[in-house]
Each structure stands twice: as structure tokens, then as C-alpha cells.
Amino acid sequence: MDADTLDQAVAAIRSRGYYSAFPESPSPRVYGPDAAAEGQRAFEAWEGRAFPVSVPGADGAVATEKSPFGIPLGVRYPQVGAGGLDDLLTAARAGMARWRDAGPDTRVEVTLEILQRLHGRVFELANAVMATTGQAFVMAFQAGGTHALDRALEAVAFAHTEMTRHPATMVWERPAKGDPVRVEKTFTVVPRGVAVVIGCTTFPTWNSYPGLFASLVTGNPVVVKPHPRAVLPLAITVQTCQEVLAERGFDPHLVTLAAEAEDAGLAKDLATRPEVRIVDFTGSGEFGGWLESHATQALVHTEKSGVNPVVIDSTGSFRGLTANLAFTLSLYSGQMCTTSQNIYVPAGGIETDEGHKSFADVGAGLAAAVDKLLADEARAVELLGAIVNDDVLGRVERAADLGEMVLESRSLDHPTHPDAVVRTPAIVAVDAGGPGDPGDRPYARECFGPVTFLVRTADTSESLDLVRRLGHERGAMTAAVYSTSEPVLDAAREVALDVGVALSENLTGGVYVNQSAAFSDYHGTGANPAANAAYVDAAYVTGRFRIVQSRRPAPA
């Protein structure tokens, strides 16, 4: 990967146009006839083995992963306990000064080489993501592989722009009587300190790469703390980082892995250490809030839970609307922080290109679209993937207790992985509840997974009011609106701006509310409780370093 790639990435973040450095199709025509098989063999070679990665302070090994597909893993990783953190963090800091002194251009060059090397392992990464998260293979290849790499490159491009906004050295000259006053000034990008990236179980690479590479390229050593059930994708990543750093003459422990036993609580111990100055976290609102309150010595970036809304007022394509939402609700069984949860529909129904549709008609149309999309079970499992854990499964199985079932979840058999737990989406009709605080109603809390609430409101005005209220109270990563009325669309935009949530309008084709494109779409805004940062904007990278200057008289 050369300087042209960086230039193109920098141009893309400015134009916000389409750009991707890593082809998203796993086709043999793109990657060659042997790439897929070689990547699968590389992944399978880790099964039951001790993973070779250097971890100072490790004591013994730990194997914690259980594949939602039933794929045998049994990979053993060096285990870090609270007693090993002194050695781990000391080793992480040891190479920091040399990495700082290498300067922005060299750090970017090395980081781009890491991304290129990871791209060479993209099929191995995709299999690791699939096995640990339950994503279907194509999604794992894209979200866990190429799109994650694009998000990493996006972070590098933003960081390079901000680190090089000023000259490294210059001679300052002030006119004076006689000879001017001349001062030579040096401006150095100084890293903030050790960064900790806390991985999640559903998107271990996509959600970790922006923080990992934003911290590394700005000079900070990074400790990667994976979720115990999704270690392998990040272990492969850390291994690749260490290999490239060592080859380029830098300390490989600038990037380290901190694997732990289930429920060991290492994330809390790490995040609150005084040496740790940056924390990146994706996961539950409860733990994200804990980090924000307790890791006060660090700059904390969180992406937490939210309640993502859809407002249906009217539509010029009822079939397009229902097909689009059916795909949104089905993709990876709704196990995405961007998946719509609440669909607000007026009790009196909506106007469409097919005539008036009652509230019940809208529900029936959505249910029919989901059933049609998932009618071929062999194809359906490649869209749904597998249920990631028992907590999500429990929510699906209790959906009937939450309201009137519009669409019951079905269990599907996976033709390749018979142990996989596969469920189709459930749709539950509930009343908005009228005036008062909606916070105690089931739809007002995040229900992560394939459970969607069809919320009966008095009218579109109440629908938008609920978006505003729950957006401020609970947060949202995405929002959508369907309307043929420009005043309604204007009102929805105003609500979205007030809440601070990305809005999609009248999606009826091949663009979906729960998908975002690197270099163009901001993932999260940092403007509501669902996230305090955006992937990726300038604010996401600038806090990871400071500019420190030195000056001395310049020769005449």
C-alpha cells in the first residue's frame, strides 16, 4: 500500500464520495482462485492450538470461545491477569519514545503496511469473524474484513491530516530595530499514552479497528482486550501488527493482546490504570457508562446501546418500503447497533401507492416481506447468520410476552452447521401508551437482536415526539422516516438534528438504514447517549495526541 492510497483516502474524507481501498467481493475473480481455500485452511490451522503472540506479563493460557455455529475452536491464548498488568503496560510503554520520534509520516507508512498485510489475510480473518460472531460468511468477509480495513484506513487518513496540519519545523521572524528577531521552532506530535481497545462479541474488528489504528498512528501503544468469545480475529490482528512493527525495527509490544477468562473483569482493571490514557469501547450502555464515570484519567470513546426508530407516515412505494425494512430487520438477525428497533405507525394507518393501509395492513405487509425474503431457508441462513448468545435467544423467545405478535420468530436448520441457532425476526405490535413517560414500556429500552416493535401512535406528530424523547433519554445510532410530505420530512430532519442522530429518508432500494459506508457515512455522532464519539471524524483522532513545541534562537 503506497502513498497514493493515503492521498485517495484523504481526498475521500474531504469529498465524502465513494471510496474503498479493499474490494468487498470475495469472488475468485477478485482475489484469485485459491485465496478462499487458503484462508480457510489458515483459520482451521488455529483450532486447538496455542496462538503465537507475544504478551508480556502473561501467566498460563485461556480458551474461551464458543462458536455460535458450533465450529470447533479451542484456540489457547496467553492469559493476562490483574497481576500481570505491570509487566504488560511497562512493555507497552518501552517502545513509545522511538515510535513517537519516528514522526507522522513513518508511522503512517508502517500502519499502512499493517493494513495491507491484514488484507492479505482477509479470508482467514473472515473465517475467524464468522466462527466467533455468528455472522454469515459474506457479511464476515465484508464487515469483519474489508469494511473494517476501510474504517481503519479512514482513521489513519484523518489522523495524518490532523498531525500534519502544521510544519514540523520553521523559523519565526519578528521585525525589530536592527536585525529581526529570529527563533527556530520545532513542533512534535506527542502521543497521549497507552491506549486500551475493548472489543465486542458481534463486530470484533469493525468496531475495534478505528480506535486501534487511530491510537497507533498517532504514536500511542495499544493494548487490545478482546471479548472472551471473540478473540481470534483480534489475535490475528495483533500478531500482524507485531510482525510488521518488528520488521520495521520498532518494538513489537507497541501492540499487545490481553485475553482473559470469562467474567475475569480485566477491562475494568485495565481501563482505570494510571498509565492508560485512552479507552475505546463498544458494547452495553451499562459498562460504557461505567467507563465514562470511572476511567477519568483517560480519554474514553464509547459506542453503547440505543433505541433506533423508523417513522412511517406515508410512502410512494409500499412494496419497496416493506422489502427494505425486511432486509434491515433480518440482516445478522438484527444483532447490529444500527438495526431499527421501533417502527412507529399511526393508529389510523398510512397513505401509499397501493391505497390506504391500516395499522394492521402495515404489520401484515412487513410480515409478508420478511417471510418472502426468508422463504428459501438455505439462502435465509446466509442473511440471518446465527444467534450470538443465550441473552439474545432469550429475548426472542420472550417476545410474545411483550405485546401482540405480528410475526412469530421461526427456528431454521443450517445446512452446513447443524449446531447453529438460527432465528427469523419477530415483530410485536404495542401501543405507544399516550401521554406520560414512555421509559417503562418495553419498546423504550434496547431489545438487542431480532425483535422489532410495531408501535401504534396517535399520529405522525406523536411518532416524531417519541423519536425525540427516546433519542435524548436512550440514544439512537440510526433513524429513518418514510413520507411523501415535505413538511413531515422537514420535521423529521429537525428532530434528527435535535437528537443528534443520522437520518435516512424513504429508503426503498438497495441502501439500508443499518449499513454505513466508510469515508462517507459517519457511524454515530457523539451527540446522544448511544455514543460519545463518531467513526470517524477529526474529533475522534485529535484527542489522541498533543503538539509540544521547542524553540531556540535561529542563526542570523
Q: If you had to describe this structure to a student in words, what would you say it looks like?
A:
The protein is of the alpha/beta class. It has 19 helices and 21 strands. The strands form six sheets. A seven-stranded mixed beta sheet has the order 14-17-18-11-10-19-20, sandwiched between helices. The chain has a five-stranded parallel beta sheet with strand order 7-6-5-8-9, sandwiched between helices. It is globular, with a radius of gyration of 25 Å. 54% of the residues are buried. The mean pLDDT is 96.
Number of H- or I-type helical stretches: 19
The overall pLDDT, averaged over residues, is 96
Strand percentage lies at 15-25%
**Helical coverage, percent range:** 25-40%
> The biggest beta sheet, please?
7 strands, mixed
Radius of gyration: 25 Å
- DSSP, total strands: 21
Structural class: alpha/beta
Could you name the ranges where pLDDT drops below 50 across 5 or more consecutive residues? none
Characterize the overall form: globular
Distance between the termini: 43 Å
As laid out across the biggest beta sheet, the strand order is: 14-17-18-11-10-19-20
